[in-house]
From TrEMBL:
It comes from Micrococcus terreus. It comes from the Bacteria. GO terms for cellular component: cytoplasm. Gene3D superfamilies: NIF3 (NGG1p interacting factor 3)-like. It holds the Pfam family DUF34_NIF3. Homohexamer. A divalent metal cation binds at residues 77-78, 116, 246, 250. The keyword Repeat does not apply. Keywords: Metal-binding. The keyword Iron does not apply. One of its GO terms (molecular function) is metal ion binding. Coiled coil: none annotated. The lineage of its organism: Bacteria, Bacillati, Actinomycetota, Actinomycetes, Micrococcales. This is GTP cyclohydrolase 1 type 2 homolog.
Length: 292
């Protein structure tokens, strides 16, 4: 092989625009919910990207970590500017984040509900880690592929008691102060499982329609959870509920997402260093429980 041929085959550094093309293939913005704010927040499309940092939350601790590591792009699951703002002055925490990113030469890209709905997205990863099989969307995407949509429903190879399955969920999640909360008969058997990474208390109708024995999600408010339990009593107590940390449930997606993006960029002839933040950005620091 000639020197010119060798050089042409060498991996190159992609531009931000080329990374965005790869991200769009994996987690299309068309899968985003109408209320969501996904996509590029900070960054010049022509800028080279040699290092990418993945995290759940665009908070100052994570931004400092990404900039300190020399990343040219921070990809977070949660949006920074989900609700409208009229200033990004550094006197506010969001403005300070934007200034830190720009001054540090680091872009910000958010993949939120598009990463929830896509094949290989947040709920897919959780379901696979928990050993579920025959996965299907809990709430299928309106105009997407049959495999796309919010949440997943699957079955366990062998039924487990609720207590044993909850222990499996607990062991799979990053450690956070709130732990895992469970509602239901400890000795009840579960086989069909519904899961939604992040806040999923708007999907109880879909959960009941799926025939799930147990539903795993985060941020279960009192009234929806109470109503779900009362309704479940009319159906033998099911679905049982397992509430996990919002942050923990979505952090599980990061290593898989980083690997998938790395594989796609490599296939396209690019070489990028991709890291996953190990920062615990769950907002709670400790919890008090009876008898603790």
């Amino acid at each position: 092989m000639s020197t010119d041929q060798t050089l042409s085959a060498s991996p190159s550094t992609p531009t931000l625009a080329q990374v965005l093309e790869a991200v769009e293939e994996l987690w299309p913005q068309s899968l985003s919910e109408g209320w969501d704010a996904t996509g590029l927040v900070v960054g010049r499309p022509e800028s080279p990207v040699q290092r990418i940092h993945f995290a759940v939350d665009p908070v100052m601790e994570v931004v400092d970590e990404a900039v300190g590591a020399g990343a040219q792009l921070l990809i977070t699951h949660h949006p920074l500017l989900l609700r409208g703002v009229n200033t990004v002055a550094a006197t506010s925490y969001k403005g300070q984040l934007v200034h830190t990113l720009i001054e540090g030469g680091c872009g910000l890209l958010t993949c939120h509900t598009n990463a929830d709905s896509a094949v290989g997205g947040v709920s897919d990863v959780i379901a696979e880690i928990l050993g579920l099989e025959d996965l299907r969307p809990l709430a299928p995407a309106k105009d997407g592929l049959p495999e796309e949509g919010i949440g997943r429903v699957g079955t366990l190879p062998q039924a487990l008691t609720l207590a044993d399955f909850a222990a499996r969920v607990f062991s799979a999640m990053p450690a956070v102060a709130g732990g895992v909360r469970v509602a239901g008969d400890r000795d009840g058997l579960v086989s069909t499982v519904a899961v939604c990474g992040g806040a999923g208390d708007s999907l109880f109708d879909q959960v009941r329609a799926s025939g799930a024995d147990v539903y795993i999600t985060a941020d279960l408010r009192h009234h929806p959870a109470s109503e779900a339990r009362e309704t479940a009593l009319l159906n033998g107590g099911r679905p049982y509920l397992i509430e996990v940390s919002h942050f923990a449930s979505e952090w599980l997606w990061l290593p898989a997402a980083a690997q998938t993006l790395d594989n796609l960029l490599t296939d396209r002839g690019f070489e990028v260093d991709i890291a996953v933040s190990g920062r615990n950005t769950d907002p709670w620091d400790f919890v008090l429980t009876p008898g603790a």
